[in-house]
Design brief:
Number of domains: 1
Radius of gyration: 15 Å
Helix content: 40-55%
Strand order of the largest sheet: 1-2
Largest sheet: 2 strands, antiparallel
């Protein structure tokens, strides 16, 4: 099985952070849900990758004093990563030689790289240099990776902790 592309990992890890912010469950419990869900499509991702990345995203938001805007910023980053490359060119999912959803032969994702991309996004967003989600967009309604939209719609439960 192929490994999760880094841009999908970025979105999934941010989804962990976003759900944790509005959830009574531990970060590990929320990350467990995403680890299990992503394993249906890609080689298993170790739980600590999700946890560390989500912690770094939340720490970055805290350092930036995002406050109540934290979820809006996370949603914006997810929209950006789903729809654009880091150089702001539109992401093409279906290409001549395959799909951008196809996994990588070797894992290219890492919590540190995700944090760096998130910080770059946050800085550029605060300077009005990033595309913003259209009114009404949410991760639950994304059409780039419907399996992730489905996973985000399914909230963590107490059974995920067992």
């Amino acid at each position: 099985m192929e490994h999760c592309p880094d841009w999908i990992f970025d979105v999934a890890a941010c989804a962990v952070a976003r759900e944790f912010l509005g959830s009574p469950f531990s970060l590990d419990s929320v990350a467990q849900k995403f680890q299990t869900g992503m394993a249906d499509h890609y080689a298993p991702i170790e739980l600590h990758h999700f946890v560390v990345c989500a912690e770094q995203i939340l720490s970055t938001l805290n350092d930036a004093k995002a406050g109540e805007d934290a979820t809006i910023i996370i949603e914006g980053f997810c929209y950006f990563r789903l729809n654009y490359e880091m150089d702001k060119t539109p992401r093409k999912i279906a290409g001549f030689f395959g799909s951008a959803l196809k996994g990588d032969k070797e894992p290219r994702y890492s919590a540190d790289n995700s944090r760096k991309r998130f910080k770059a996004y946050l800085f550029a967003m605060r300077n009005n240099g990033m595309p913003v989600p259209p009114q009404g967009w949410s991760m639950e309604k994304n059409d780039k990776f419907p399996a992730l939209a489905q996973l985000v719609q399914t909230k963590a439960s107490i059974l995920d902790t067992l």
